[in-house]
Amino acid sequence: MKIKAINGFKDILPDEVANWQRIENTARDIFRRFGMQEIRLPILEKTELFARSIGEATDIVEKEMYTFVDKGITMRPEATASLLRAYIEHGLHVKQPVQRLFTIGPMFRHERPQKGRQRQFHQIDTEIIGAPEPQIDAELMALGQMFLHELGLSVSLEVNSLGCPECRPDFRNRLVAYLDERQDGLCEDCKRRTRTNPLRVLDCKKRNCKQLVQDAPSILEHLCSACDTHFTAVQQQLDSLGVTYRLNKFMVRGLDYYTRTTFEFITTDLGAQAAVAAGGRYDGLIEQLGGPRNMPGIGFAMGMERLALLMEQQESHPTIAQADIYIAALGTEAISFSAPLVHQLRIQGKQAAMDYSNRSLKAQMKQAGRLNARFTLIIGDQELSEQEGVLRNMDNKEQAPFPLQEPVEILARQLEKQMAI
Ligand code: ATP
Ligand code: MG
């Protein structure tokens, strides 16, 4: 019996890794431009951390967490809670009042696996802690847009405000009153949500529910004046940075901690899995987790599986050369001669490859092709005794003799020079 990976957990194979590396490299480059520092966090945390931050009545905490019940620990379903836990634990605000952080890694949620939805998935998460200004919200969205643009992806941005503890309860009451009158038309989940988490009804994906909430009260018309001023300023700043977006009053997000601005980058290219990245402001959360009082924060997370799928779909295929030079060694003496030369080229920082199987020239040229090698140096026992190999440029197919009489250090330098031309 073959042992297979468990449902919802996936290998990322070498052919796919090229896209993943491009996603990570691009993210790191963009984060550098925005002054974001990396933080690396553990995968296991106390269960209470997620219950207290994400919220007891959310899908994640209610049914999606991988928890070791007897140990009271959980595999993180998202990164924000852990990042804030670390921020508070190490008093990062003391050193630097505004922290700009990012982290990359796997998250775990027990949900139904499908395209773009797994049980282990990966996020690039970024947070700015300590700054309440609306310009910060706009800056983060601009970062997201710049990143997606740099990857060549076309994705659209939707923005909403969820208000704050001042204005949300009133809105919530109005919404519950509206939903109470329409219970018969709602799905079972939404009937329950009307009591536990009524805002979630607004983004139910079921057709009936969607239709029913079309005329529900809009949060944007019930913001208190501070939230309204903040949200107007966010939009002005997005405009002045040239970030295109659309308001979506139905977007509520699945985590309880959000206040004011929330946003999602969405696509129509991944079926039901529309959100590529999502996040928002969480001004009360740090205090709620035992951190400094009145410490604001905002962040968002991008789903790497969905980014990689989109890159495939929107045809963005980087080919990665696995060799600057391949040495085709024919015969045992040629193999003994070539191995130190390959090693020297690697010391010099070149991608050099060979194999020791003594296969035919044809087989080895094929291998050089598979590796996308730019050059091939052919050395047979005869070439060795005549001290002259053949250097082939794989792009233009030109061949030239390459003298072999010097020590490998010098040969490697000469090869490097040839390859630079
Ligand atoms: P969805 O509505 O698709 O369930 P979400 O609101 O649960 O997403 P967040 O918790 O905000 O998602 O996570 C941010 C991003 O992480 C999502 O936009 C998505 O790209 C990605 N993501 C979330 N859950 C999964 C999953 N199970 N598999 C793959 N990617 C995921
Ligand atoms: Mg989800």
What does this structure look like?
- The protein has 421 residues and is of the alpha+beta class.
- The chain has two domains: 14-167 and 223-314, Bira Bifunctional Protein, Domain 2 (BirA Bifunctional Protein, domain 2, 2-Layer Sandwich); 325-420, Rossmann fold (3-Layer(aba) Sandwich).
- The chain has helices at 14-33, 47-54, 59-64, 80-89, 92-95, 134-150, 168-180, 188-196, 207-212, 225-240, 285-288, 304-313, 332-347, 361-370, 381-385, 408-420; strands at residues 37-38, 44-46, 66-68, 73-75, 99-108, 120-129, 156-161, 246-247, 259-266, 275-281, 297-303, 325-330, 352-353, 375-380, 388-393, 399-403.
- The strands form three sheets. An eight-stranded mixed sheet has the order 1-5-6-11-10-9-7-8.
- It is elongated and about 90 Å long.
- The chain binds adenosine-5'-triphosphate (ATP) and magnesium ion.
- Residues 78, 109, 111, 116-118, 121, 123, 254, 273, 275-278, 301, 303, 305-306 line the site of adenosine-5'-triphosphate.
